[in-house]
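Quick one - first record:
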Amino acid sequence: MKSFGFNKYGGPNVFEEVTLPQPTPTKGRVIVKTQAFAMNPYDSKLRQGTITFKTTPQFPQIPGSDVAGTVVAIAPDVTEFKIGDSVMGRVVHGAYSEFVSVPHLKLIPKPKQISFTEAAGVPSAGVTAYDVLKGAVQLENVTSILVLGASGAVGSIIVQIAKAMGLFVAATASERNIDFVTQLGTDLVISSDQLSKRNFLDHAPVDVLINATPTKFTPSNGYRLLKSDGQLVSLNGFSTSFKVQRETQTVTDFNDASYHQNKKALVYLAELLTHNQLHIPVAKVLPFSLAGVVQGQALLDSHHKPGKIVISKDFKKTN
């Protein structure tokens, strides 16, 4: 089968088309014929060789964790799917391929309301967002949150889940992404470079502050806007200058590997998608080809507009 991977670290052009054996369904797994896969920032770090592994990784490396497509083979112990089902799911790696072996506990039927291209953008960012709100955060008595970095893939889904839960949602974004974040349904949007100035939240601090930016949380990131007994969650750690101000606050250095809610999260996300309470913005759709993958990797390395980068067999030259 055709896959896209690399045999050395470097820029987008290290990618090459790789021929690998088509997977067969081992215990608990489903083989999906790929219609679309999404790219994530992790893929770029993997390509550049900046990810630390416990053991030496083997080449060629085939990235990719988000896949949408059609079921073509099923292990005997898997009963919830049938051949021909349209599905979306999550794997550790290997989604940049014509066929992907997906654990059945990380796979669900694709909602009819969305395309394969949109579906491919859901799993990793969606499960992470769900784990933040439904795992790391204790939701009892929570009525308000502030999301830093709300234009990112995870941040934008956190905003939409929180709105679906009926919370007051404030968010930050760069000036150029203010309109995008406003359209997500946020109640208050603050320009990132204006966060140090007094605003409405100085008079009404939030119950939960979530750092969904790609950088470590620092005290200047609006820490003053969190209640004295509030919860702070950072997806990318904390700066050395950060110190907890009050013992009554809960501070969490989020690691998605601590949660095992893939199926539960995907089912929940599908419900939101079905009821039009969640939208997955797609920044760019590219062809299912080596050229498409290289172009997508270059976009990953740039400050592209909000939304997912998706490699899709449904690519149309007009997009």
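second record:
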Amino acid sequence: MKRAFDVCAAAAGLICIGPLMFSIAVLVRLTSRGNAIHWSKRVGARNILFAMPKFRTMYQDTPQLATHLLQDANSHITPLGRILRKTSLDELPQLWSVLVGDMSFVGPRPALYNQHDLVELRTQTEVHQLAPGITGWAQINGRDELSVSDKVDFDVEYLRRQSFYFDLKILVLTLVKVIRRDGICQAETPQTVALSLPSVDAQSNRAA
């Protein structure tokens, strides 16, 4: 049921908000140098790497670090990027990842390929078996304000409680978070590529 819901909802979402996504892509290109879509190397189910798309919210010359590790991170975020992050509109391209099966609507947020501590803890607790999600139990209980260990604790709780109805609850709570504009500091590395899906070493067993 979970996969069927993901496919149907992602396809419907891409069709319904396609014009909005096109408009955002045009604005990103017009307001700063670089491609509209940013593809980052992320750790998926069973620690297989995949390319995750987001609307680019940072300048091209930003150091390749998670946002919360940057010095004066706000100086690296474009004016439009601040709006996209506050409204979570930068996440819309991930509907494609859900449609093709790299992600689910609900699951642990995909780690960056170089977040070794997070990947290791998830592997030890078998959370790595889950498909990563656009949103998750940890995201509505603190997001990036959580420590790595606390984040994994919520991931483990989701692993044990997962069900279609629990996913629906998380989606509703996520919508409430977005409307309230709770703090968001999601990681993005600056390397951008063309709009076509780049090749990723899908056989890698862990982030490197």
